[in-house]
Amino acid sequence: MELLEPLINGIIIAIEPINLMMVVLGVVIGLFVGAMPGLGSVNGVAILLPVTFLVPPTAAIIFLAAIYYGAMYGGAISSIMLGIPGASTAVATTFDGRPMAMRGEADRALVAAAVASFVGGTISIVLFTLFAPPLAEFALKFGPPEEFALMVLAFATFVGLGGSDVAKTIFSTLLGLVLATVGLDIISGQPRLIFLDLPGFYHGINFLVLAIGIYGIGEILWTLEISQGSVMISKVELSLKRMADAFRHLKVTVKSTVAGSFIGYFMGILPAAGATPGSLVAYGMAKSFSKDPESFGQGNVNGVTAPESANNAASTGSLLPMLTLGIPGSPTTAVLLGGMIIWGLRPGPGLFENNPEFVWGLIGSLYIANVFAMLINLAFVPVFIAMLKLPFTILAPVIFVLCVTGGYAPEQSMHDVWLILLFGVMGYLLRKLNYPVAPMVLAIVLGPLAERSLRQSLLGSQGDMMIFLDRPLSAAFLAIGLALFIYPIVQLARHKKRQGAPSGEG
Amino acid sequence: MTVRTAELAMTLLLAAFSVYLMAKSAELDIGWIKGEGPGGGAWPFWLAAGMLVCCAVTLLRWWRGITPESRDREAFIGPATAKILVPTVLSIAVMLGLTHVIGIYAAILLFLLFYLRFMGRHGWALSLGLSLSAPVATFFFFEAALRILLPKGITEPLFYPLYSLIY
């Protein structure tokens, strides 16, 4: 098998001492970030990205991917112990995890979550290894029109699957794209959108400035607002005997775990779908195919394993379009993509050919990270539970300091740090008014690529817009994008019709 | 301010910003340049135009009471929330302002001390311990390990002995 050789090389790269250290460190931080309510993988990755300038790119992405990965495990800890999802990706885990904990079965729920995450992670990495190289090879044929059409498709999925206010979602996307154009025009080199003639805008608005502002400052303000109430931690009894017992009980969860893994993986590949809807769909499927659907929500262990395997699988799934097409599937992968550009790597299909040690090192590290995440998770459950008691008034100021120093480091300009504060406050206010902020971050990362591919396409066609429809692939992407765009409007109309009909189902 | 008023205010603000962006983009060529393709201002100009359209739609939906926010008469930011968030944002702003004068390390120290002791009401031992160790850790991480110099303002001379230690 031709895949085996690069894979083994990748695993060898992943177990080099520095990379292995990054995996362990990343997983531990990820578990913590995932477990803390108010922090998720995207916050961890955005705030800590500047820290990775210390190590080579391969080690850096391994570190950040391990955080991403660990956060998917960690989310379950607070879902089960506090009844509050540690991250949105673990919402579904609260449905049955919390009742189990209330019944005194927190240890069973935690073990089930860890093992399900491991299975979900493993199945999805194998799928990833099989799918990624052929997809990248196929994508190598893409020209600028296909690239642009693909990005339009990515933005359309946000509208189609976002579910919230369409006008506000589009506004958020467009604002991200405009912010990406600040600085010097990528083709003519002219200064562009230099607000108030501030010299700080000449180097553009780094995507990190927006990401740290929104996911560092903005999100913490949000959490400070909602965490005013107190939380109650469930008691947990831990002993080796009970653990072994919990493992034996997992036989009943095989089906829901495997199904959750596949659902999560494919949901993860879709841009904008990702881990949160993936885990909810997996939960719903497990419930509807169960022989005993009434027990869901009362503490059925399958209600923990299905969403937990799905959210891990989805996180790996969302790396697929990011690495092969250069289109991130989630805000976290958007930040990872931005990081790759900073490290001087060009994301997209060429990556597999030009930087094989980078790509395969990352893939190899996912196999390793998965094993470590499960072991560390199981071994340190009591430590993480103790950390959940850490008051947010300690964590919040430390995060603010990390945002300020991390925001200063890339360009070494205080201008950027002030912008972070501005974006943080604006991001918080916009979020309160139901403006989705994830599309904005995605758009600022993709903005320069989208503009370049659009202008190159138009230059090639002498300004004829038909070039996007003449080429079959780009026409297909645009058609799917259009369908996704229209879908919520049609759904809304249908919904209204049904409401108008007299015999509604309630 | 109610959520309803806040949505209106924000939409108007964003609409004004969109118009500003369009005007700013139009400083560059927004038309077709022969042999060069679209001018440098075209892409941001049309994006900003799209933003303006989105604002108009939101305004219409607000007017007709379709968005959940436009029907919400609760306070946008309640007094309990304001009591936490306003000092938080202000203290960060003061930290940034002080960075220009006394440098980032002293600013971080003061910010943490204020936040932990007076916002978080933690003990002096924890507050002082954390606010003293954070700048030290930051220094060794950025200046020694990453070789990135952070701004020090008038406190620069205090760092000369440390420079000789790490260089």
Tell me about this structure.
- The complex is a heterodimer of chains A (506) and B (167).
- Chain A has 506 residues and is mostly helical.
- Helices cover 73% and strands 1% of the residues of chain A.
- Chain A has helices at residues 4-14, 17-35, 41-48, 57-81, 91-102, 106-139, 144-162, 166-181, 207-226, 240-248, 254-269, 275-288, 302-317, 319-325, 331-342, 350-354, 356-379, 381-388, 392-408, 414-432, 438-460, 467-470, 472-500; strands at residues 183-184, 191-192.
- A two-stranded antiparallel sheet of chain A has the order 1-2.
- In chain A, a hairpin with a 6-residue loop joins strand 1 and strand 2.
- The longest helix of chain A is centred in the first third of the chain and has 34 residues, at 106-139.
- Chain B has helices at residues 3-25, 42-63, 79-119, 124-145, 160-166, and strands at residues 32-33, 37-38.
- Chain B is mainly alpha-helical and 167 residues long.
- In chain B, strand 1 and strand 2 (37-38) form a beta hairpin.
- At the A-B interface, helix 8, helix 9, helix 19, helix 20 and helix 21 of A face helix 1, strand 2, helix 2, helix 3 and helix 4 of B.
What is the topology?
The complex is a heterodimer of chains A (506) and B (167).
Chain A lengths: L3 H11 L2 H19 L5 H8 L8 H25 L9 H12 L3 H34 L4 H19 L3 H16 L1 E2 L6 E2 L14 H20 L13 H9 L5 H16 L5 H14 L13 H16 L1 H7 L5 H12 L7 H5 L1 H24 L1 H8 L3 H17 L5 H19 L5 H23 L6 H4 L1 H29 L6
Antiparallel strand pairs in A: 1-2
Helix pairs in contact in A: 1-17, 2-4, 2-17, 3-4, 3-9, 3-15, 4-5, 4-6, 4-13, 4-15, 4-17, 5-6, 5-13, 6-10, 6-11, 6-13, 6-14, 6-17, 7-8, 7-21, 7-23, 8-21, 9-19, 9-20, 11-12, 11-13, 12-13, 15-21, 19-20
Chain B lengths: L2 H23 L6 E2 L3 E2 L3 H22 L15 H41 L4 H22 L14 H7 L1
Helix pairs in contact in B: 1-2, 3-4
Organism (chain A): Rhodovibrio salinarum
Pfam families (chain A): TctA
InterPro entries (chain A): DUF112_TM
